[in-house]
Design a protein that fits this description.
alpha+beta; Alpha-Beta Plaits; three-stranded antiparallel sheet; two-stranded antiparallel ribbon; 5 strands; 22% helix; elongated; binds iron/sulfur cluster
Length: 175
């Protein structure tokens, strides 16, 4: 059965002098090159250039703080349970007296890790979180040659306390 209508009958007739010089083929090839030279490139020079992301793009995660700067995560484990890639692990701890400014809830994640090599950026952890603590941002998770660079702990996940270091995800929250 014929799959396309682009089949060509092969003939063994002798080439003309013009064809033997490959001139028509060379001119045809040059025309194609010239056409593409003036066309808008389909590629971007990443990382210097980046494409505009869609509103629902899901990139690297952030663990949010509340308006007073305390970590919102209460180590309930719902994000880990909902993760289809089993990429999230955590160790819970109890908040001590005097740590109210650090952790919003009585229980917090002493260790919280995401294996970025397993993560498929599906966003189910974000949807499962009852504390609005974890969100996927528009930032691309950086590449690396070392496997251990892909185990992201709290040092890389929790946003900074200072206003300038906060990661704005209001658009996602509004949704
Ligand atoms: S985005 Fe999906 S795969 Fe990645 S950690 Fe969250 S739930 Fe797991
Ligand atoms: S990020 Fe949210 S769902 Fe995950 S452990 Fe913390 S509070 Fe629970």
């Amino acid at each position: 059965m014929q799959l396309t209508n682009r089949s060509k009958v092969v003939s063994d007739k002798n080439m003309t002098a013009m064809e033997a010089a490959y001139l028509p083929a060379v001119i045809k090839g040059m025309a194609v090159t010239l056409k593409h030279f003036f066309m808008r490139p389909a590629t971007t020079k990443y990382p210097e250039q980046t494409r505009e992301f869609s509103e629902v793009y899901r990139g690297r995660h952030v663990l949010k703080r509340d308006e007073k700067g305390a970590e919102r995560c209460t180590a309930c484990g719902l994000c880990a349970v909902s993760c289809p890639a089993e990429a999230i692990t955590m160790v819970a701890a109890e908040r001590k007296k005097g740590e109210e400014g650090l952790y919003r809830e009585e229980k917090y994640a002493a260790i919280y890790e995401i294996n970025m090599l397993r993560c498929i950026f599906c966003g189910l952890c974000e949807e499962a979180c009852p504390k609005q603590a974890i969100f996927l941002t528009k930032e691309i998770a950086p590449a690396s040659y070392e496997r251990e660079d892909f185990i992201w702990g709290k040092d890389r996940l929790v946003e900074g306390v200072e206003e300038t270091k906060r990661i704005d995800i209001t658009k996602r929250q509004d949704r």
